[in-house]
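Could you help me review a protein record that somebody else here produced? My question to you is simply how this chain folds and whether the tokens agree. Thanks in advance; the entry in question is below:
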Amino acid sequence: MRPVTSSTTSWLAAAFAAAMAVSGGIVAAQSAPDGENGRYSMTPIPEGVLRLDTRTGTVSTCSRNGAGWACYAVPDERTALDAEIGRLQAEVEKLKGQLAAGPTVSGKIDEALPKSDPLKKAEPKNAESRAAEGERKIEIPLPSDQDVDRVMSFLEKAWRRLIDMANRVQKDVSGKI
């Protein structure tokens, strides 16, 4: 082995420093985002490159076309949501103003409400109705004479058809024996 001299040591130190500077520059170049002063961060995607503007938060897709590279902003749902929230807040403020300017509505009424059914027809009070006041009467309207005649006509036709069918079956059975 050869003894280490100061020229060898300085040469190794210089080579090590140069290697560190070059590798540090490469590492720094790889970690720093592309663009001006590290403003943009690029991520490869199948269609091209996804670009994030680190100052504004805008995301764009960049792809190569016939004329060169073109970047198009990706629609931002957050912007749409913020716009809708702003619109709703303005509407709420407008409605609050209308309520404040409008007449005051009180939840209480000075008089007590009647305890009767407002849809119930007023009946004359006699001894019978006073006794049955606590009971509910169900009144079923009776059918008219026309309704009864229609039902009787239907039943007569059905009865005749049943008798005719029974006679046919009896003739068929007696004829076969």
Summary: Residues 4-35 have pLDDT under 50 and may be disordered. The helical segments are 6-31, 77-101, 127-131, 145-176. The first strand starts at residue 40 and ends at 45. Residues 145-176 form the longest helix (32 residues).
